[in-house]
Amino acid sequence: MAWKFTAGRPIYLQLMEEIALRVVTGVYEPGDKLPPVRELAAEAEVNPNTMQRALAELEATGMVNAQRTSGRYVTEDQGLLEQYRRNLAEGYIREALQKLKPLGYSLEEVMDMLRKVQEEF
Amino acid sequence: MAWKFTAGRPIYLQLMEEIALRVVTGVYEPGDKLPPVRELAAEAEVNPNTMQRALAELEATGMVNAQRTSGRYVTEDQGLLEQYRRNLAEGYIREALQKLKPLGYSLEEVMDMLRKVQEEF
Amino acid sequence: MAWKFTAGRPIYLQLMEEIALRVVTGVYEPGDKLPPVRELAAEAEVNPNTMQRALAELEATGMVNAQRTSGRYVTEDQGLLEQYRRNLAEGYIREALQKLKPLGYSLEEVMDMLRKVQEEF
Amino acid sequence: MAWKFTAGRPIYLQLMEEIALRVVTGVYEPGDKLPPVRELAAEAEVNPNTMQRALAELEATGMVNAQRTSGRYVTEDQGLLEQYRRNLAEGYIREALQKLKPLGYSLEEVMDMLRKVQEEF
DNA sequence: GTGGTCTAGACCACC
DNA sequence: GTGGTCTAGACCACA
């Protein structure tokens, strides 16, 4: 399973992030029907209510919308998805910069290292 | 306290990393005498034996060395320190790139975002 | 269907009100013959006896009258209809004022809001 | 008890509205501490989780904010409260106008009736 | 079968 | 004692 939780942070938030990540990385594409709550819950081995909450909060962000009787669908608003994708990326970068900061490297040096490390990928 | 442990990884390793970070960021400077084991152990709220092991392992890396009976000193080998500092930095960058990868941004885009986010600091 | 009942109040009363509303809003005009009881009952998905009672009570108010054996007719007494229409309207207004009261707006403020909201219609 | 629920609409929404009404009408004043979740739940005779949800959603509107260990407090943002109060009032007026509409009165007539009915209060 | 709501009861972190 | 989270299991409306 791709579902692994870190202690100390609400599971429903982690579920949200994982699903958002799937949406943003194209695992679930715009307009796609998401698996039913109970199925996702079983897959993640959490209580359906917890998954329900995660999806409800995701819905509040506009990334998915529920069609009452037929299921949940990924938004087709590509702009919103792009927005979220960018926020994620900048968040990762911010996180790295925070750890990098006390090491005292200049922006130029960081960019050089980035170019070097990037070659591993 | 600056000591915060994440479950699942040996504490002595985390202690090692924290002390190495202090060395590399200049909290403890080359040639400085480190605080006594018992003091560090107390500060980290850890068994002195655990701290002892952390320091012993650190010694094996060459970053600190026990001189006579008088205590432990930070190495004055700047090259070794620089090496460690660089490894740390590249590790942080590698970590970020790994998370960034599934988002599908190009190196150029990542560098642009890096420049933008860097302005917050 | 336009027939929707709220629990807790006698259905025949709700039927009365709905029919009276139709009379007063001109769905059934003065002098018109009302549909037969069975037809109205079917439309409202209600036991004919219940509809029968509703119409009997309506008759007591004078808004409809049973002429000979041929059915029920809407009264031609415009004054009575006007009276009922006005009572309804004032009831709606009274209801709104009751909810408005604890909010503490002055009559002037309420009238301003009324003018503003009215523009939506 | 002032808590009375109408079937067919989620209880947590009705709880939200009731509490918001209390805030907006000054039962709970800006800066006041709200009663604890469990107490409100007991008073309303609902499950604490349901009340919890109502308060959480209220919090999302900014009308109250939770101070983790010490309780929930009514916002001191008077503008936001005023905004909400006005929305409520306009909602009541809109509701009345919708019912009034089929009766065919002019704005002037409605205002006359409003003045008349207002004298009862 | 789908999402949504509600209850009951447990546990946690924080102060 | 406070808010918050999680589980388990039931029920509902809708199509």
Based on the model shown, name its key terms.
homotetramer; 121 residues; mainly alpha; Arc Repressor Mutant, subunit A; two-stranded antiparallel ribbon; 5 helices; DNA-binding
Secondary-structure map:
Four copies of one chain form a homotetramer.
Chain A (H helix, E strand, L loop, with lengths): L10 H14 L12 H8 L3 H14 L2 E3 L5 E3 L3 H23 L6 H12 L3
Helix pairs in contact in A: 1-3, 2-3
Chain A binds a DNA duplex (15 and 15 nucleotides) through helix 3.
Task: Explain how this protein is built.
4 copies of one chain form a homotetramer. By secondary structure, chain A is mostly helical. Chain A folds into 2 domains: 11-76, Winged helix-like DNA-binding domain superfamily/Winged helix DNA-binding domain (Arc Repressor Mutant, subunit A); 79-120. The first copy, chain A, is 59% helix and 5% strand. Chain A has 5 helices and 2 strands, in the order H-H-H-E-E-H-H. Chain A has helices at residues 11-24, 37-44, 48-61, 78-100, 107-118, and strands at residues 64-66, 72-74. In chain A, strands 1-2 form a two-stranded antiparallel ribbon. In chain A, a hairpin with a 5-residue loop joins strand 1 (64-66) and strand 2. The radius of gyration of chain A is 18 Å and the shape is elongated. The model of chain A has no long low-confidence stretch (mean pLDDT 94). Chains in contact: A-B, C-D. The interface between A and B is medium-sized, with 33 and 33 residues. Chain A binds a DNA duplex (15 and 15 nucleotides) through helix 3.
